[in-house]
Known about the structure:
Layout: H1 3-26, H2 30-45, H3 51-67, H4 80-97, H5 101-121, H6 127-145, H7 149-167
Helix pairs in contact: 1-2, 1-3, 1-4, 2-3, 5-6, 5-7, 6-7
Amino acid sequence: MDFDRARRLAExxxxxxxxxxxxxxxxxxRERAREAGRLAGQVFAADLADVEAAEEAAETLARWxxxxxxxxxxPTEPGPEEADLRMRDHLKDVVRDHLxxxxxxxMSEARLSxxxxxxxxxxxxxxxxxxxxxYIYGRGTMALELGHREAADRELERLRELEDDQRRxxxxx
Length: 173
């Protein structure tokens, strides 16, 4: 999979969602409102091979939104952190759509294992264990979101080791 194209498509989805809703609600033209919805649908339905067509549709929406730049409800660009979070949410969808079923099934199982292990370790009496579990869980979840199987497996194993260490009785000295 071409992750650069996937990232571009995710960014186009992020931008198009807000712009199409704004244009549809505020343009005062039913035909333009319908067309804005169609263009947004085109962006969201685009495949990695259709990134250029999605860019054209997003540019049209941006031009139409610029026509309404003085409108009091025109959406503002989110800050960098918020833009990254929104784009990442769309990227997860784009990547997931292009993964084989077997890999998506593995991701679901791995996510459940991470959740279960994290919840178990979050009840540990030692705050250092809880902190370590949260760290491992965060790394594992991030690896899953990026579709990085080896890293996710590594974090799952670290979480299992942490659980095993907690179950062993401490040795008396």
